[in-house]
Amino acid sequence: MVTPHARMGRQEGVKKVGVVSKPYSAESSAAQAHLRSLLIELMRERGESLAEFGATLARTIDTDRQPFSRQYVYRLKVGQDPITVEIAQALQVLGAMLDGVNELQARAHYVRVLAIHPLPDDVIVLGRPRGCELAGCRIQFVPASPAQRYCSAECRREADRRRRESTE
Ligand SMILES: [Zn+2]
Q1: 36, 74, 75, 76, 92 from 71: Cα distances, Å
Q2: Which of 67, 97, 123, 139 has the highest CB neighbour number within 10 Å of its CB?
Q3: Contact yes or no for 3/92 (Cβ under 8 A)
Q4: Whole-angstrom Cα distance, residue 139 to residue 147?
């Protein structure tokens, strides 16, 4: 996973807690052992109990996520349950934050986007994507305003036309 802070020359700090910056499979046993030691180190550095760290992990994955149980975090810690890809990503975010990378940069990841307006490099998009509500339009977009339901004026007009047609 290439993260913005890696590109911003914070690599050294990130390495301190053993975060790898290159993609790897969370499935290999070496990767699992590495992730377990990162988990243990994070819990110690943050001074959190199993239950507290379960809540921290869940919140890092998604703010609405239910906390992981104390028992589950224990099983991850001792290797009875594998560390999933989403938990591995959360551990890396927490590791980067521990080294002073701000939370927004630590949480952000690179994706390919199609932009309408000129965007600077490393711009952080805060909005969530949604699908155009016109039946048959498959475009996903980050709305320009919370009320926007269609990807374009064309789709909005077409939806109006279909509504009128169905009521005539
Ligand atoms: Zn559309």
Answers
A1: 15, 5, 6, 9, 22
A2: 97
A3: yes
A4: 17
Q: What is the pLDDT of residues 21-36, one digit of tens each?
A: 444 555 688 899 999 9
Contacts of 151 (CB under 8 A, 6+ apart): 132, 134, 137, 139, 141
Instruction: With 0.90 as the threshold, say if the pTM is over it.
Output: no
Domain ranges across the chain: 4-107, 130-167
CB neighbourhood size of 95 (10 A):
24
Token readout for 34 is: 């590495």
- Evaluate if residue 11 carries a pLDDT over 60: no
Q: What's the CA-to-centroid distance between 148 and ligand 1, angstroms?
A: 11
Contact status, residue 1 vs residue 21, Cβ threshold 8 Å: yes
Instruction: Tell me how far the alpha carbon of residue 146 lies from the centroid of ligand 1, in angstroms.
Output: 16
Q: How far is CA 82 from CA 26, 35, 36, 51, 151, in A?
A: 9, 10, 9, 18, 40
Measure 154 CA to ligand 1 centroid, in angstroms: 7
Ligand 1 centre distance from Cα of residue 134 (Å):
6
